[in-house]
Structure formats: structure tokens, C-alpha cells
Design a protein that fits this description.
single chain, mainly alpha, Four Helix Bundle (Hemerythrin (Met), subunit A)
């Protein structure tokens, strides 16, 4: 009888635990893709601001700003495993992490309103600050 209860509970619980695992793996992949997109838009913005290429910066600014709003939702509990460069401090020092995300968001807002080397520098400084505290490598 005990064996049947255990087996039944595993059959009922297992799909939920693997679904959660799969969801978190997808969250990690999405987070990594978003960070790559953010990096590409920052690099493109840099080329435009330095005058190395003539292009409209507005689309890049919008993508950077959009990314800044999405980041806080991409580090849920349970996404601190597997192929991720995020340090455990993201989850154990959540208040500090959220403060860094807010700095990034504010700098992205300023850059979106007034694209300049100064506002761009503020964005990249906030990236570096957060990565120093919360990213492996």
C-alpha cells in the first residue's frame, strides 16, 4: 500500500516538477538572448555616437530601454542553475540586485531621452557595475 501511494504521488508530482524545471531553463535561455540583444544594441549605439556609421539611433535606444524594463522579471527563483553566468548573489542579495537594475533602467531612460556620449557612458557604467557584482567571469 505504501509503495502504491509513493508511486502515485511521484506520478502526480513529477510532471509539475519537470515543467517548472523546463520553464526555468527557458527563462535562462530567454535571459541570455535578451542580454545578447542588449549588448548588440549597445555596440550599435556606440558606433553611431562615435560617428563611425550614419544610422538612426532611436531604434537601438528603444531596444535598450525595453530590455531595461524586462530584466527584473528574468531572474525568478529556480533559475539559478544550469548554463547561467548569474552569481548566486542575484537571489541572495535581491535588494542590492534590484537597486542595480533600477540604476540601469534610469540610465536607459536618460539615454533614450537624450542620446549622447555622456548618457551612453552612464548606461555602460551601470552594466559594468551590475556585472561586477552579479555575473560570473
Amino acid at each position: 500500500m505504501t509503495r502504491h501511494v509513493l508511486l502515485l504521488s511521484l506520478i502526480v508530482i513529477f510532471p509539475y516538477s519537470t515543467a517548472s524545471f523546463a520553464d526555468n531553463e527557458d527563462t535562462i535561455k530567454y535571459r541570455q538572448h535578451l542580454m545578447n540583444i542588449l549588448s548588440l544594441n549597445l555596440k550599435s549605439s556606440s558606433l553611431i555616437l562615435k560617428g563611425k556609421i550614419k544610422a538612426d539611433i532611436a531604434g537601438h535606444n528603444a531596444a535598450i530601454l525595453d530590455s531595461s524594463y524586462k530584466l527584473s522579471s528574468l531572474f525568478p527563483e529556480g533559475s539559478d542553475f544550469g548554463d547561467t553566468d548569474a552569481k548566486e548573489a542575484v537571489w541572495t542579495q535581491n535588494e542590492k540586485f534590484n537597486s542595480e537594475l533600477l540604476k540601469f533602467n534610469n540610465s536607459a531612460i536618460a539615454f533614450n531621452k537624450e542620446p549622447s556620449m555622456q548618457t551612453f557612458s552612464d548606461v555602460t557604467k551601470s552594466c559594468k557595475s551590475c556585472h561586477k557584482a552579479f555575473r560570473e567571469k
